[in-house]
Amino acid sequence: MKANRFIPKKIGLPVLGLFGLLLACKQEAPEKLYTSSMEIPVSAEMKAVLTSPPNVPPPTAKRSAKKLIVDMEILEQEGEMTNGVKYVYWTFGGTVPGSFIRTKIGDEVEFHLKNHPDNKLPHNIDLHAVTGPGGGAESSFVAPGHEKVFSFKVLNPGLYVYHCATAPVGMHIANGMYGLILVEPEEGLPEVDKEYYIMQGDFYTKGANGDRGLQPFDMQKAVDEKADYVVFNGKVGALTGDNAITANVGETVRLYVGNGGPNLVSSFHVIGEIFDRVHVEGGNLMNENVQTTLIPAGGAAIIELKVEVPGSFILVDHSIFRAFNKGALGMLKVQGDENEAVYSGELRDDIYLPEGGGIQKMPSTGEVPESEIPAKSMVERMEFGKQIYMQTCFACHQAEGQGIPNAFPPLAQSDYLNADVDRAIDIVLHGKTGEITVNGQKYNSIMTSQTLSDDEVANVLTYVYNSWGNSKKEITPAMVQKVRNGK
Ligand SMILES: [Cu+2]
User: How remote is the CA of residue 168 from the centroid of ligand 1, in Å?
Assistant: First the structure.
């Protein structure tokens, strides 16, 4: 960002006085300099475009400051945290995070906060971009079925968090009541090809991570900062698969990344990319060539990167168990031509077998995990099976069961799989080593033994057998038990 032409109000008059003196000595008058952004006049009225994540409203570009009407509706509504896990979210605009608000320095924002009549609780809003008591919270406290109006002038450029500040504050934030408001500098931000809106949040449920059903908020876990879920954009998978954000090779991407908390600080990182520029903490300080940027709870960062090669780039909180075990994982899918000068791709894959390498076991506590509720129908078996596949098998056998040439055999249309069900069960239970031939290709590698319950093995294999052109068998826990007990 270019240096702001307005003198931040907090530096105040003493600095301005000195500045004026210096200018006087040099006999140069500044062409146009408001003594403070407070004095920027507004020219007309307009309605703010609000967007739900991961979308961002259009740039303010060269428009002058306006009276900007923001209409925001609070909705308390049930949503899905992850497959089979429901949660009642409290939202600004029906999404977590809430609608993105894009303003320009000097705008006079007239904020209309509406609390839907079906809601159960009063709420309010504290916008970190507001200069005034409670960031607006004191003037915006609104009961269900009411609308509050207050206004403020945006004086400082940057990316700011807003959140509900109604007691118990932590609970309102933990239920999803946060979002971002951008204040663009006079000249706007430099043009980029793609812009996205991402916010991390931590969630606390009565049940453990993955326990199905409607999960109430757990106050004690929140106080203890023991999050069950840490996610981007309100739920596990909000930015993966078909929901991934996208770009084309050669494009510049700007990410507006916030952290609603309520508790955890984010070590935001994109696997396989380097941030070309970061507006540190959403302010004017610019850092370059950053691997991981810290985003405090109640803070934000503007991240810019150019994508040079195609692929799936994984967005994570690099406090890495949060990414792979609690949900803080998203995807930036980049399409376009390979650029081997930048990245060669795999050149070789040689088998490396240290002496004594047999079948390795995943470390485990010894006990066989039991899934909470056994699948009741084929539909459920498929659904639970897919979850296990995506958590356990995906890394090697890949999303569509296509495998990886010379390393991991395909499960899609695998003649080896389809020929012998008991053998397949045995492989998942005990692992596999030694040469095998799958669809005419030889593999001689190691599959580690998987620590799964009979039920989980049944579900995942049913999913595999009923996907990607395989022979459509249903595997039951009884069949798995037979193989486990050596028939
Ligand atoms: Cu609230």
Answer: 9
Q: Is 72 annotated as a binding residue?
A: no
In a shared domain, residues 168 and 134? yes
What is the 89 CA–ligand 1 centroid distance (Å)?
Answer: 10
> Nearest to residue 324, comparing CAs of 391, 386, 260?
391
Containing structural domain, residue 149: 44-188
CA 69–ligand 1 middle distance (angstroms): 21
Q: Does the annotation flag 172 for ligand binding?
A: yes
- Residue 170 inside a domain? The answer is yes
Bridge partners, 256 (sequence order): 197, 302
Domain assignment present for 404: yes
Predicted TM-score of the model (pTM) = 0.67
In this structure, the answer to whether residues 314 and 393 fall within a common structural domain is no
Count: domains in the chain: 3
Name the domain boundary from 282, 308, 335.
335
pLDDT in tens, the chain (487 residues): 334 444 444 444 444 444 444 444 444 444 455 678 888 989 899 999 999 999 999 999 889 999 999 999 999 999 999 989 999 999 999 999 999 999 999 999 999 999 999 999 999 999 999 999 999 998 999 999 999 999 999 999 999 999 999 999 999 999 999 999 999 999 999 999 999 999 999 999 999 998 999 999 999 999 999 999 999 999 999 999 899 999 999 999 999 999 999 999 999 999 999 999 999 999 999 999 999 999 999 999 999 999 999 999 999 999 999 998 999 999 999 999 988 888 887 777 666 665 544 555 555 554 444 445 677 889 999 999 999 998 888 877 888 999 887 778 999 999 999 999 999 999 999 888 889 999 999 998 878 777 789 999 999 999 999 999 999 999 999 999 999 998 6
Output the CA 70–ligand 1 centroid distance in Å.
Answer: 18
Please tell me the distance between residue 123's alpha carbon and the centre of ligand 1 in angstroms: 4
Ligand 1 center–CA 262 separation, angstroms = 13
Question: Any binding-site annotation on 164?
Answer: yes
In order of 5, 17, 94, 158, the CA distances from 35 in angstroms are: 10, 10, 40, 19
Whole-angstrom Cα distance, residue 484 to residue 428?
10
Q: How far is the CA of 175 from the centre of ligand 1 (A)?
A: 8
Q: Phi then psi for 328, rounded to 5 degrees? A: -75, 70
Q: Which of 256, 270, 266, 177 is nearest to 227 (CA)?
A: 266
Are 177 and 309 part of one and the same domain?
no
227 and 260 fall within a common domain: yes
